[in-house]
């Protein structure tokens, strides 16, 4: 099947499937009406074809993920009245995503978040990475996993539909040692969960920290700020940062501070008091109380108007709360609305920033022969 730039043709609608050997068939476990459709999403500037996978579950919830950046472009979930809205920020076209943008919807790697001064030591050797965020390295470098075209394959999933994305990052790509193969399995379940299962394996010792950088607005894309969203984060502690957003190494209590979201609180209630550099807002890593390693409830966010509720479960030890502080109206989204400050928020489940330079933080080193595994679930309901 040929995909040509701009042509959203050659749709391949599959109401679930079995293996190629047995041809296309119904997978009863997917649930009635659940299906995946593959379409072309155009061609990158350097001529690579990009596909879009539209996952629909048995309840009509829709998630769209493309091979460029293994990136979530749309996510339509119901409100109290059953009305669907797209709750993630993004662009209409591939060209938007190929332009300068703050990681909307993307899979971020090889190492999400910051590495101080773009430097680290591993196995007695010093490595130097691109400095692409003030004096620091951010989100995998100049051409991180968010800007790569991944391979994709539909896979069967009990109780839902799924697409698996794979990318192999060459040895020393963006300065990181070891050829690393990463996979992200997106599953949309019939319980309205979007589940992301990550794996990674390397041929040399390296460092890995994978996350998804979706910006959520539970009122709907382009529907104003998220300051009234009620947020909880199950974390008693966080990692304070310096003026360049690098952790100081301290692990501080959130109790009695504007950082505390253990009880549901509107994101905007204390946002003006958050310490830190301009432009202001939350951009901090929380130390999840469950400690990581098991899939556990970590955060919830609810839009009081629509009633849409998102619960976040993760196996990761941390989550970066980022409140879209750098959005300044210069990017226009899918709905034709310019994204202003706080028009979306991210809950980036992750290992802590700059972990490789912080011996007290959970380690991010991956050895050959071991498989990195991580799962995050975004569960949607309304009340
Ligand atoms: C992360 C960082 C933020 C910002 C965004 C992208 O969430 O923590 O400081 O760089 O990515 O704009």
Question: If you had to describe this structure to a student in words, what would you say it looks like?
Answer:
This protein has 383 residues and is mostly beta strands. The protein contains 1 helix and 28 strands. Strands 12-13-14-15-28-24-23-18-21 form a 9-stranded antiparallel sheet, with no helix packed on it. The chain is globular. The N terminus is likely disordered. Alpha-D-galactopyranose (GLA) binds next to strand 25 and strand 26.
Search tags:
nine-stranded antiparallel β-sheet, globular, mainly beta, disordered N terminus, 383 residues, 1 helix
Give the secondary structure arrangement, pairings included:
Elements: E1 12-14, E2 35-43, E3 49-56, E4 62-66, E5 71-78, E6 84-86, H1 94-98, E7 107-108, E8 114-115, E9 119-122, E10 125-128, E11 137-138, E12 151-157, E13 160-169, E14 180-189, E15 193-202, E16 206-207, E17 211-212, E18 230-233, E19 237-239, E20 252-253, E21 265-266, E22 283-287, E23 296-302, E24 308-314, E25 318-322, E26 346-350, E27 365-366, E28 372-382
Structure at a glance:
By secondary structure, the chain is an all-beta fold. It has one helix and 28 strands.
Roughly what is the average pLDDT, rounded to an integer?
93
Query: Approximately how much helix is present in the residues?
Result: under 10%
Per DSSP, the total helix count is 1
Order of helices and strands: EEEEEEHEEEEEEEEEEEEEEEEEEEEEE
Give the strand order of the largest sheet, numbering strands 1, 2, ... along the chain: 12-13-14-15-28-24-23-18-21
Note poorly predicted spans.
1-26
Span between termini? 44 Å
> How many extended strands?
28
Beta content comes to 35-45%
Q: Looking at the structure, what is the overall shape?
A: globular
**Radius of gyration computed on alpha carbons:** 20 Å
């Amino acid at each position: 099947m040929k995909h040509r730039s701009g042509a959203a043709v050659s749709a391949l609608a599959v109401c679930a499937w079995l293996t190629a050997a047995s041809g296309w068939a119904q997978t009863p476990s997917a649930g009635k009406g659940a299906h995946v459709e593959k379409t072309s999403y155009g061609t990158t500037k350097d001529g690579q074809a990009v596909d879009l996978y539209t996952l629909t579950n048995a309840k009509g919830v829709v998630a769209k993920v493309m091979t460029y950046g293994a990136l979530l472009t749309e996510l339509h979930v119901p409100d109290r009245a059953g009305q669907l809205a797209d709750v993630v920020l993004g662009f209409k076209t591939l060209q938007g995503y190929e332009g300068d943008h703050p990681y909307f919807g993307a899979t971020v790697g090889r190492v999400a978040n910051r590495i101080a001064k773009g430097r680290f030591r591993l196995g007695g050797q010093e490595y130097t990475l691109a400095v692409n965020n003030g004096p620091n390295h951010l989100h995998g470098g100049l051409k991180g996993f968010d800007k790569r075209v991944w391979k994709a394959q539909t896979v069967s999933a009990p109780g839902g539909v799924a697409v698996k994305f794979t990318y192999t990052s060459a040895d020393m790509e963006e300065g990181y040692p070891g050829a690393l193969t990463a996979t992200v399995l997106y599953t949309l379940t019939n319980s309205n969960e979007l589940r992301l299962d990550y794996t990674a394996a390397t041929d040399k010792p390296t460092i890995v920290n994978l996350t998804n950088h979706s910006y959520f607005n539970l009122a709907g894309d382009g529907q104003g700020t998220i300051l009234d969203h009620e947020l909880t984060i199950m974390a008693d502690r966080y990692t304070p940062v310096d003026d360049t957003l690098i952790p100081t190494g301290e692990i501080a209590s959130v109790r009695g501070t504007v950082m505390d979201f253990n009880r549901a609180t509107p994101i905007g209630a204390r946002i003006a008091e958050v310490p830190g550099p301009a432009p202001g807002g939350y951009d901090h890593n929380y130390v999840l109380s469950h400690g990581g390693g098991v899939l556990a409830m970590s955060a919830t966010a609810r839009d009081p108007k629509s009633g849409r509720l998102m619960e976040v479960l993760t196996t990761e030890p941390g989550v970066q709360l980022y409140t879209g502080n750098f959005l300044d109206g210069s990017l226009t989204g899918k709905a034709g609305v310019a994204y202003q400050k706080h028009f979306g928020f991210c809950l980036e489940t992750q290992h802590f920033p700059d972990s490789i330079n912080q011996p007290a933080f959970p380690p991010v080193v991956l050895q050959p022969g071991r498989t990195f595994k991580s799962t995050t679930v975004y569960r949607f309901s309304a009340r």
